[in-house]
Amino acid sequence: MNIQLKKGLLEVCVLSALSAEDSYGYQIIKDVSSAVEISESTLYPILKRLETEHSVEVYTIEHNSRLRKYYRITPEGRSKIDAFLEEWQEVVSVLDFIKQKIRSTDHE
Fold first, then answer.
1. Contacts of 81 by beta carbon, 8 Å cutoff, 6+ apart
2. What would the pLDDT profile of 28-80 be if each residue is shown by its tens digit?
């Protein structure tokens, strides 16, 4: 899969995981891994990028005597998901076109 496409998909997967409830790194990895493989070394740069662009907010809570970073989706993050879903319809149309043309040339 194209690396830029995968990066964009991973960002939306992370935002989607956070849309239900605030979460922390390990839990986000578990949630997203049901759809696509993601590692800590991939997740944390994504979270930092999303924080920089104000798609997520970060706060800490003490857990077992340690501070744990939690991430919360912002309205900007929700808008990013909405924009992705709108754009995805165009991708689906292109994919359908490609499949149709390939099928028609396979029968010639």
1. 12, 15, 16, 19
2. 999 999 998 899 999 999 999 999 999 999 999 998 999 999 999 999 999 99
CA angle 64, 65, 66 (to 5 degrees): 90
SS3 state of residue 67: strand
Report pTM: 0.83
59 phi, psi to nearest 5 deg: -145, 165
Quick count: other Cβ atoms within 10 Å of Cβ 13?
20
Mean pLDDT of the chain: 92
Dig out the tokens for 10 from the structure. 């991973």
Which sign does the torsion angle of CA 30, 38, 33, 87 carry?
positive
Measured in degrees and rounded to the nearest 5, phi and psi for residue 73 equal: -70, 145
